[in-house]
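Action item from last week, closing it out:
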Amino acid sequence: MVRSVTYASFSDEKALLHAAKELRGQGISLIDAFTPFPVHGLDEVLGETRSRLPIVCFVAASIGCLVSMWFQIWTSAQDWPINVGGKPFASIPAFIPVTFEVTVLLGGLVSVAAFFFRSRLYPGKTAATPNRNVTSDGFWIAVEHQAAKVDAADLSCILQELGASHIQHEEQEV
């Protein structure tokens, strides 16, 4: 399947954000925006939702905490109880450092794995760069013609009115 995409370059982040808001106001949906640094408010304009990665991290860390505490209590109090210096078998304060380390380790590893899985980043995958110019130091918007319901000429006129300095049309394989 081939899709027709228009890329438009803007001079700064304010012009990009203004153009994105105007395009959305006209009912033209944007595919993506490319910026050299995060632009405040651009996520809302693009319709991006908040990441669920912190929830994944919290659940993984909680499981790590509970499993490590359970394992230490089970090994010291049930499986192989050894009386060392008269301490109780389930000495919780002695288990805190290991529990903390396992909590952080499991939370971090699962978060990284979830990020790679969700982003479809895996070893050996070739990068799908949309356009070589958009990855340079500039502010770009990508609009698909079918989603915009306008032809390339009308879309170019709209983007020029919004202050685009460079407009490029491309056909991409999906």
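Closing note: The chain has a mean pLDDT of 86.
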